[in-house]
Design brief:
This protein is of the alpha/beta class. Helix content is 41%, strand content 19%. The longest helix has 17 residues, at 13-29. It is flat. Bound molecules: iron/sulfur cluster (SF4). Isopentenyl diphosphate binds at residues 40, 76, 126, 219-221, 263.
């Protein structure tokens, strides 16, 4: 058996700095609130909860004693309105919105000021997109995964940071084909982390007999890697924990490729590799 692990593994930069910040606050203050799940990974969240991190998922859940508590905003970011409410209620708000997400928001804002109508290729219900929507001029923004007819002539086309690059390219081409814009500005705002993981998944899935994609079942970036791998390698499996390997048929002659989502801890990858080596 041969095991090929992708080079880009474990938490991405944005997730890693948010987790580190929460741990640092916990060391100092013994308690912290997080606005929304910090990562789509049960094991990581359970570990943080055991250390007394508490998650609230909406403004309605703000605790009575918030004025003596600290709250952390996760990497996806939130709307300005939500942030103001948190600031008015909590002792301190620590904004760990990923700088790459912040850059996307700034770009859309700036170009809207310059008169561009913004088309965002993304999922309307994704937390990053919901946050962006609340931080820019909504009337001058279209969020869509499908190319649509648009009456505006001067447009900016950008993407949610975690969308697939090929799908974004198709979206741009099809949007241009069905519209008659006078001025188009296209910016590839997909995060480099996403691009690298996607590229490695494609390369590995072409040459491996079996692919393991490790990550939380709610993680959209892990799901995307799974779909990419599955297109090229029929024996692709999406697992969250190494115990799930017991259900998978693995042969001694298999070349096994392993990739992880950006919210998957390295320790889970190590457990998977150790399990495979023990077979
Ligand atoms: S995937 Fe990219 S944009 Fe999203 S949190 Fe990680 S580094 Fe930031």
């Amino acid at each position: 058996m041969e095991i090929l692990v992708a080079k880009r593994i474990g938490f991405c930069f944005g997730v890693s700095r948010a987790i580190q910040e929460v741990k640092t606050i916990l060391e100092q203050y013994k308690e912290v609130y997080i606005y929304g799940e910090l990562v789509h990974n049960n094991e990581v969240m359970n570990e943080l909860k055991e250390l007394r991190a508490k998650v609230i998922n909406s403004l309605e859940e703000i605790p009575q004693d918030a004025n003596s508590k600290i709250i952390v905003i996760r990497a996806h970011g939130i709307t300005e309105k939500e942030k103001i409410v948190l600031e008015n209620n909590f002792l301190k708000v620590i904004d760990m919105t990923c700088p790459i997400v912040k850059n996307l928001v700034s770009l859309v804002r700036q170009k809207q000021k310059e008169g561009y109508y913004s088309i965002l290729f993304g999922k309307a219900d994704h937390p990053e997109v919901r946050g962006l929507k609340g931080n820019v001029d909504e009337k001058s923004l279209l969020i869509t995964e499908k190319p649509l007819n648009i009456t505006f002539k001067k447009v900016l086309i950008v993407s949610q940071t975690t969308m697939g690059e090929d799908s974004f390219k198709d979206f741009i081409a099809d949007t241009i084909k069905i519209n008659s814009f006078k001025e188009i500005l296209v910016k590839n705002t997909i995060c480099t982390e996403t691009l690298i993981r996607e590229k490695e998944t494609l390369e590995l899935s072409k040459k491996c007999d079996l692919m393991l994609v490790i990550g939380g079942k709610q993680s959209s970036n892990t799901k995307k890697l799974y779909n990419l791998a599955k297109e090229r390698c029929k024996r692709t499996f999406y697992i969250e924990r190494y115990e799930e390997l017991e259900q998978i048929e693995i042969y001694p002659s298999d070349v096994i490729g392993i990739v992880t989502g950006s919210s998957t801890p390295i320790v889970e990858l190590e457990r998977v590799v150790n399990y495979l080596k023990s077979l």
